[in-house]
Amino acid sequence: MTRFIIRWAINAIALYVAVLIVPGIQFRGDWTGVLWLALISGLLNALVRPILKFLTCPLILLTLGLFTIVINTALLLLTTRIGQALSIGISVDGFWSALLGSLVISIVSVIMSLFLRDELKKK
To answer: Which residues, in sequence order, are bridge partners of residue 36?
Structure first.
């Protein structure tokens, strides 16, 4: 359970940093909205991402893994659409903003996971 909460917090912080840094991503709401978006994003990454990676395996191999950036972008756009449907208050201006946002989220997640590596390995 602790690992889930840490991953959720990392995802929420990464989303918030993307909102702060990327000009095409706007968030109008409070911190609970960011937590809900992080939960939605985590669920999509756990359920939809493996299916997308399986279906696009030839493209991933052909591009030497760079197509995973497009998958991350699509999942961020799907997260914002679900967030908008739930009236969470996030908007992404387009594909390029989502692409930059997914890169920021990935980088922040990797850096924070490195710092919290010992906590994530417990249990």
So the answer is: none
